[in-house]
Amino acid sequence: MSNVQIMTGNQAAAIGAKLSGVQVVAAYPITPQSQLAEILSQYIEGGELKAEYVRVEGEHSALTVCISASTVGARVFTATSANGLLYMHEQLHWAAGSRLPIVMCCVNRGVGAPWTIFNDQQDSISQRDTGWIQIYCRNNQEILDTIIQSYRIAEEVYAPIMVCYDGFVLSHTMMPVDIPDPEKVREFLPPYQAHTILSPEDPRTLNAVLFPWRRANSEGVLCDGYMEMRYKLQAALERSPAVIQETSRRFAEVFGRDHGGLSWGYRMEDAELIMTGMGSLASEATQAADILRDEGIKAGVVGIRVFRPFPAKNLKETFRGAKGIVIFEKGISYGYEGALSSDLKAAFYGSENQAPVHNYIAGLGGRDVKARELADAARASWAEMQTGIVEKPTTWLNCYTG
Amino acid sequence: MPENLFKINAKEYILPGTRACQGCGLSLAYRYALKALRENTIVTLPACCLCVLHGIYPSTPVLIPALNNSFASTAASASGLVAGLQALNRTDITVMAIAGDGGTFDMGIQALSGAAERGTDFIYVCYDNEGYMNTGTQRSSATPLGALTTTTPIATKQQHKKDFLKIMEAHDIAYLATASPSYPIDLYDKFVKAKKIKGTRYIHLYIPCPPGWVYPPKDTVKMGRLAVETGIAPLFEIENGRFRFTGRSKSIAERGNRLPVINYLEKQGRFKKMNIEQLHQVQHWVDGKWQEYQRRSQE
Questions:
Q1: Residue A85 belongs to a domain with what CATH number?
Q2: Is A68 close to B44, i.e. CB distance below 8 A?
Q3: Under CATH, which number does the domain B2-297 receive?
Q4: What is the spatial distance between Cα A157 and Cα A168, in angstroms, rounded to a whole number?
Q5: pLDDT tens string B66-100
Q6: What does the pLDDT look like over B231-256, one tens digit per residue?
Q7: In this structure, is residue A236 part of a structural domain?
Q8: Interface probe, candidates B15, B40, B57, chain A, greatest A C-beta count within 10 A
Q9: pTM to 2 decimal places
Q10: Domain count along chain A
Q11: What residue numbers bound the domain in which A385 lies?
Q12: Which of A111, A388, B213, B281 sits a CA distance of 20 to 30 A from B123?
């Protein structure tokens, strides 16, 4: 029996954390995440969720609390946005290096300076290389479901996961969400059993200083050096796409919803012009595809759900039939182009797929992007691609560039 | 007093062969602190001298579980340990966060203030060797006026030490104490007491540092004693707002035989550039603090 309620993305995230049976929550308020921190405190103070809530004095401490609580074996949750995420940056590396299955929501927002409270994805994109798995959601149902899935994935591969969703566009927008049955969730996601915990029963010094080379312990057994440990983090992330896909498949079996694993497609059957992006922007592009289809252009959309680990192998397959690719991004690697654009093009290197790729930067700092505008951009690019324009400078959509 | 020595837990929690420097005051203090806290303890620490003492992976001389954390996060890490243990119903474990003066007075102050304000149930220990000794004796806000450091290499430090004890007392915490490795029984007693108290407990350790302070390693205990005897490092505790001198400082306060600071300063190479005016400033500063403590001890 379904239990559909109308709720914001932040509410959906809070319910996702509650259903996941998190034991420690640490959070610091920041727009547009605040509502999520508030709802969780209501659950905990009201006794609906049996967990410790640490009302920390900053985001650096929020993630530190999660790191340490996870180290003693608790399932932990936090959430932040924009500058709060940047303030955590040091601890993002620390969490991944410690190989802890922390799940955090990033309610995507543009970063200062100058200040903006509105949505883009520069915050999480800038954390690309911290060793976290990043999953981008396109609607509120997906937020709730992804949090539950994320604990299962993180606790299998021992890597932290950032569940990203667009500020205001999703965080403050009401949508119908089917709340899964708590009993079924418990079955899908059993309590966390850590393989190593910090405990007086088995005293260890964790995260100690390492020399560059492997080093023998007191029994003469060679133990990992820094580089071996870092390699293992990379190996865990390389292994995770299969776990993400399997978790997605299993979730679909139990709850009847499949959000696509690594990526999802829309009208892709015979698509020649493929629009792609992450989160709500990719969702918006599905309407643009409809507009273009009505005009006779064979347009489709690939929504990239998992940005790290970058599912290059999977995407090479997904984009095989493309005759033109248009990438919309809410962030940029300043001085070059959109990070997704670089990664996707690199994925095609040496493959048969040499379709032209055009990159559009859109919606920074909450600037509105309409489906019609995405369609206009894609149509213009498609026309240019027909005349042989394979590459062109990154285009700033809806932006006065002088 | 030999009978006092017998009461100290005979078990050692630090095996021989630490990576601390010769004559390290922290090694002495940490040894007695762990003896007082015993097995059921988890330690969290940032990158600091103690991190070096804990050894290079995969070996450690320390038999108490410990978590290394980033520099600003010591007290927040303790908050996480406490919350995690609470969530798992392991409330029998004592959590001790321990950091140097740089990781406490400077970079760690925000997390510590937050944890103390929340009344987090843990012991925070600042081992104060008055500078960034692990990175090579740079100036911290705990460095005393007139000291040479590698970032005040010519002019010496121009400011007095930050009165961090006042800052911690302003948080209305459950227990606050100072201790010195030169008076191990006083130190031990304070950790035993702190272990029994609930809420945030803060213990400040004055740690002589041979390479940083520039004196022979054999003189560490002597240097710690002089710090106490000159009133530079008074031994006291504050419980429920009530101030009490302890140990050597108590007898100095009663007998009025506090030594002039010159007796302490002249033995350390870090003060060799100190001019006469700075010497007077330090004496004046120490006199003022001491009088304030004495007034409070009589309240």
A1: 3.40.50.970
A2: yes
A3: 3.40.50.970
A4: 31
A5: 999 999 999 999 999 999 999 999 999 999 999 99
A6: 999 999 999 999 999 999 999 999 99
A7: no
A8: B57
A9: 0.97
A10: 2
A11: 264-396
A12: B213
